[in-house]
Amino acid sequence: MTSLPPPSAVKLGLVIDLDTCVGCHACVIACKGWNTENYGAPLSDQNPYGADPSGTFLNRVHSYEITPGDSPPQLVHFPKSCLHCEDAPCVTVCPTGASYKRAEDGIVLVNEDACIGCGLCAWACPYGAREMDAAAGVMKKCTLCVDRIYNDNLPEEDREPACVRTCPAGARHFGDLGDADSAVSRLVAERGGFDLMPEQGTKPVNKYLPPRPKDRPAPDLAPLAPVATEAKGFLGWLDRALSTLPGEGR
Amino acid sequence: MHPAPSVIVFSSFSGLGFGLLFWLGLGLPAPTGWIAFGFFTIAYLLAVGGLIASTFHLGHPERALLAFTQWRTSWLSREAWTSVTALVLMALYGAGLVFFGQRIAWLGLAGAALSLGTVLTTAMIYAQMKTVPRWRHWSTPALFLSLSLGGGALLAGQGRAALVLLLIAAAFQLVNWLDGDARFARAGHSLATATGLGGIGAVRSFAPPHTGTNYLLREMVHVIGRKHARQLRVIAFALAYVLPALLLLLPLGHAVAALAVLSHLAGVLASRWLFFAEAEHVVGLYYGQR
Fold this sequence. Notes:
The complex is a heterodimer. Chain A is an alpha+beta fold. Chain A is built from 7 helices and 11 strands. Chain A has a single domain, classed as Alpha-Beta Plaits. Helix content of chain A is about 20%, strand content about 20%. By secondary structure, chain B is mostly helical. In chain B, helix 1 packs across helix 5. The longest helix of chain B has 26 residues.
């Protein structure tokens, strides 16, 4: 049913550290790999080696430049996937019941057998977390690797989402954000984790940790003054000789 | 938003068709026999043709019956119910007029209400979208309903009603355009709130996640469609409202009425193109576009 369940006690989700992320896109590839080979329709590519390649991805990494008023700009890499919102607008708009939020752990999923591919849930999502697969004609989204995290056939350390497992920088954390004492909840509390686009009222479960303040160079640090503007000696002769050749001065 | 031809054709044609069914349901006019057959054929071609066009943008139209299940929360599911029940009731009502020369008034009134309900549910699919501030406004259902009623009156030969309703629709159209232009900024969405990084400084999109395009950009960040927005607004306003209204002031014959209908339909199609092309989805912010 596309009615939202009452808020669950367990709220599984991700905490993404924007201070630590180096923008390597390993999470993007790990996500695409796991979710193409496992749960549901594969994540297809269209014209992958042609002039205009495109494809379905459940996780994408943006890069933003932030310029504080008086300091040089800094670059922040920004992975974005489904935030498994508590008040998920993508779920209630679904006409068929394909889109649903699990009552037991809050994961938002799509039953691909019931999806008519109308695309309305992607319209309702402010974060661009849902993409219609052009080959399968059904809506794809992050499953929080529901087929890994409860999978007894995997070694214990692999029972977390593929993006978290692969992140070489340790910028992605998985856990229960409904439990105030969990490692992820403590991380959010310590580092001032925040919601994306809170004014949309979606109450995302996933949280983002802000970049830590950077060391700033002293503002009066001028560039080094040039010590030699005219070349002397052999190099000076070479410079003058070359300047006389036709085609110089371009 | 991507101005998909199937959705533009669907909402424009079926809006007109259900508008005509509304007036037929009220008994304005209440023809019988072949004349009734003609009226109902036009109404069903428009309404059903539009509905069929709308299935072209589905990934899996063969599962469309499932869309009747989630009427508690989904406006699209409600639209499925109102459209099908309106079409069934009006078919029975029309059969009474065409084959038996009988007008079953209560059936017509129920069908008229459901026809209007169909247009309302269509409009609410757009008006509910918090992610598209331009659509999320009372003027969206007001415009869809008044256009359907006005265009329907035009087709039903209700000259006086059509004139009044088209002028009302024109007013809603202006509100929808002019107020809509400021609504994104008023909703307070920006790259700063989208990333949560505005507290550090001015945020700018430095590099998108991919060199190519993707579903999100194709579907929701359709900037190219707005290129001629100003000219299209003038064309849409002149064709959908001004010209039909002027024609309605002339003595109404079949030729004048047909011209008014064609002009109105062309204008509505242009207006509906802009309704999508000018609508900015908040996801565009993440890509440094709107």
